[in-house]
Automatic annotation (TrEMBL), chain A:
This is ABC transporter permease. Pfam families: BPD_transp_1, OppC_N. Residues 95-284 form the ABC transmembrane type-1 domain. It is found in: Cell membrane. The keyword Transport applies. GO terms for cellular component: plasma membrane. One of its GO terms (biological process) is transmembrane transport. It comes from Anoxybacillus flavithermus. The keyword Cell membrane applies. InterPro entries: ABC_transport_permease (IPR053385), BP-dependent_transpt_permease (IPR050366), MetI-like (IPR000515), MetI-like_sf (IPR035906), OppC_N (IPR025966). Belongs to the binding-protein-dependent transport system permease family. OppBC subfamily. The chain crosses the membrane at residues 35-56, 97-122, 134-155, 161-177, 216-241, 261-284. Keywords: Cell membrane, Membrane, Transmembrane, Transmembrane helix, Transport. PANTHER family: D,D-DIPEPTIDE TRANSPORT SYSTEM PERMEASE PROTEIN DDPC-RELATED, OLIGOPEPTIDE TRANSPORT SYSTEM PERMEASE PROTEIN APPC.
Automatic annotation (TrEMBL), chain B:
It comes from Anoxybacillus flavithermus. It is a multi-pass membrane protein. This is ABC transporter permease. InterPro entries: BPD_transp_1_N, MetI-like, MetI-like_sf. Belongs to the binding-protein-dependent transport system permease family.
Amino acid sequence: MAELARNEANIVQQEEQATSLWKEGWIRFRKNKMALVGSGIVLFFILLAVFAPLIAPYEMNDQQLSMRLQAPSKDHIFGTDDFGRDIFSRVVYGARISLWVGFFSVLGSVVIGSLLGIIAGYYGRWIDAVISRIFDIMLAFPSILLAIGIVAVLGPSLKNALIAIAVINIPNFGRLIRSRVLSIKQEEYITAAKAIGMSDARILFHHILPNSMAPIIVQGTLAIATAIIEAAALGFLGLGAQPPNPEWGKMLADSKAYLTQAPWTMIFPGLAIMLTVLGFNLMGDGLRDALDPRMKS
Amino acid sequence: MFSYTIKRLLTVIPVLLGMSLVVFFMIRAIPGNPAQVILGQKATKEAVEALTHKLGLDQPWYVQYIKYLGGLLKGDLGESLRTGVAVSQEIWPYLAATLELSLAAMFIAVVIGVNAGIISAWFQNSWFDYVAMVLALVGVSMPIFWLGLMEQWIFAINLDWFPTSGREDVRNPIEAITHLYVIDTLMQGNTDQFVQTLQHLVLPSVALATIPMAIIARMTRSSMLEVMKSDYIRTARAKGLSMFWVVYKHSLKNAIIPVLTVIGLQMGLLLGGAILTETIFSWPGIGRYIYEAIGYRDYPVIQSGILIVAMIFIFINLIVDLLYAAIDPRIKYN
């Protein structure tokens, strides 16, 4: 009986420690100026995406053929493209697409990757061997090549680009969680949880998964940055968003033909991609330093 | 070391087999019949069926896969459905173009990245350190395709310093020997063409080098900072060795291992990144070769192209793994 009480106390103590780790992490994050700058950039683009209809002065697909390839001016601060569409409005609406793809593709990779990683790490043996080999095989491909292959199979569209990006990032999360599970399952409080007869599912989803959250959040934030670039790359190759969607990568691809006459068609969408990615990278670096000081670079 | 090498080589086999299977099924899942694509939309049903049979595409998947695997073992990568030429014959010029581009990019990334990292660590918290690290941060977030377009706009269109695209001047074509044009022009002693080749290489390789350069610089800096705090470095300084000697000989040797890992990983990623760079700069490399083949449903080219790129990726990682022991005597493989 005393043994049982000790085991329960052990588990409660572990949960309290976890709460204070989050608090400490938040204090460290707030002190990190670069991380705050990054978060500010991310917040800026989120607001841009949410309030796009209020911010954009024109409809994203409004064509004024008499205003084709106009240089930046008071009426069109980022200029116009070859259809006379306002580039500023398209960049603002483009934030919706990029953030949507970035966030949901990473969410997909996190959910599937975590599930596979947990199963592989917790159950070990042949399940681990099979899942790990699948990860090895997927990681053996240059990611953009695999993404191109997947989109080629599914057909070019924004939704399929999202699926492809989610798939290529699964092994990164899977491996991360697997290694966390392997170390956590040796901890005393897991042995204690097993000793009091807790089910595998409860141990996995109530103890192991919450204790793996920090690296998932860090990796997830950094992965959104990569996913946004990958989505833009697929769009650039004509395999992502299709016209007339104002996806930043596609806008860059369309700008290629007008590099000499209208470089603004290329400058602003590219700048938007770079800034968003920079924001997520700074935020991810800050989260890493805050949540896992051992990983600090 | 020898047994470890053999063991590592053996682990590559199932991965390669798995990859060939993934590629095989992925390619066959691409909608559209290659025979129809080759013959065009106006082709009769009979003609399409005859060509499908000739290409062996009407056979069960496992027969096609075993034939493909058997061919691979004999070095037969199949025939391009589009050109009718053996892929093994056709692929080298494209592969060489990508190899030349990737090596040039890696050269730039390593030379600038490692040195920027070293100087940043040496003069920690100096203006150089801040500027270099901010640039590295921006570099990591830079979409290659945007950087490539910016380079074209600034250095090719406005300043006219470098050619906008391509690998050679079409009016003065290079006679290919190895298809690595830097080497070919040197072998032929043709200075004009050598300079031209370098000029064509600059913009795409800088675009491709940016992300690895930034990552290498950040990794070198953090690794050097860690090593430079060690006792033996303090001892070396106390013995009166010059800072340059301490940094470049003693510290770098021990700080280079994590950097080497990153370089290895980046070399593999460069092959992927090359696809985008090749598209922007009309560089006739393997990325474009595969990408164009997807449009034509050219199965053998897509299959073999992806497989070869992935194989190179795996072997680069293997070489990096084995190089650790050569550089760091603390690492012993059992």
